[in-house]
Amino acid sequence: MNKLTKTIIGFVLLTLLFVFSCQKKNNKVEDTMLQGKATVYVDETILPIIEDEQAVFEAEYKAKLHLVSKSENEIINDLFNDTARIVILTRTLSSKELKVFQSKKISPKTRPFAIDAITFIRKKATNDTLIALQDIVDFVKGKAVPNIKGLVFDNANSSTARYISEISGVQVNNQKNIFSFKNNEDVLKYVAKNNGMIGVVGINWIFQPPLDLQETLDNINVLGVKGLNKSEYFFPTQDNIAQGKYPLARRLYIVNCQGYSGLGMGFSSFLTGERGQRIILKSGLVPERIPTRKIRIKNTITKDKN
Fold first, then answer.
1. Sign (positive/negative) of CA torsion 61, 64, 69, 71?
2. d(CA 48, CA 44)
């Protein structure tokens, strides 16, 4: 074998090695169940609790989650466009939506992990802290309702707007004296400054507001709600939500469309596991399953040393 032949063979081997390395790099999965990076799209109405879960998850594992906060409709569109693969929603995917994924040979994995609620809020200067859901429905349908000048939603495409639209049978974003902003924070600030306006927000923003919103919340009342065809009013407390008494409760879901054992599966297991459920319970929301409590029994009593 002459020198030229050896050179050619060496060049070919190096080329093959380079191509193989590039293919391996391109096919490399960026995340596993407990490490790597992933983007999670979150319904804006429940962002605070997911930020809490993210902080603990990242502290325990070599994982980095990038949270993208959007309205419900925007997240669904991102799922269809393959922009989003891991999403947090306040509902399951409809049969029509599932068919879209089936046509792409994708099987979304959906798991419930908590129960939260939609709340009505009013400026604290008004003494009335109760509201009937029927009054909200009537107002959406264009009827005059005493003490309600307008309804304020976070976003025309949000889960809260969709929820009230379903209850009333009318699309809220097409009605008079119904307003929408960009997010729940804007709703809180607007209602705190304007009499007669009823804000519609996710309860998580009341239980866990950013520090800079505390003064705003001090000027807001969370209203007790009487359900349709009901006689009693209930406030959105953790107990009332857990017992099914509060009429505007809803489940939270993580939907994973990654198609492999990545951070979508890992974060889903964390949310529904012991640690994730304790974070839910502490936040004021209702966990999908109540975390167990370990009771330690001592046979002897020891006195504290002074």
1. negative
2. 9
Tell me how crowded residue 141 is: count the other CB atoms within 10 A of its CB.
Answer: 11
Q: How far is CA 156 from the centre of its chain?
A: 17
Contacts (Cβ under 8 Å, ≥6 apart) of 22: none
Which tokens sit at 113?
A: 């992990």
| pTM, two decimal places | 0.84
Distance CA 282, CA 271 (A): 13
Arithmetic mean of pLDDT, 213-227: 95
Helix (H) or strand (E) holding 192: helix 184-193
Backbone angles phi, psi at 75, to 5 degrees: -65, -45
Residue with tokens 């009593």: 301
Confidence of residue 179 (pLDDT cuts 50, 70, 90): very high
The structural domains of the chain, ordered by start, are 35-115+251-287 (3.40.190.10), 117-249 (3.40.190.10)
The single-letter DSSP state of residue 96 is H
With a pLDDT cut of 90, the percent of the chain lying above it is 75
Tokens 């193989």 correspond to 20
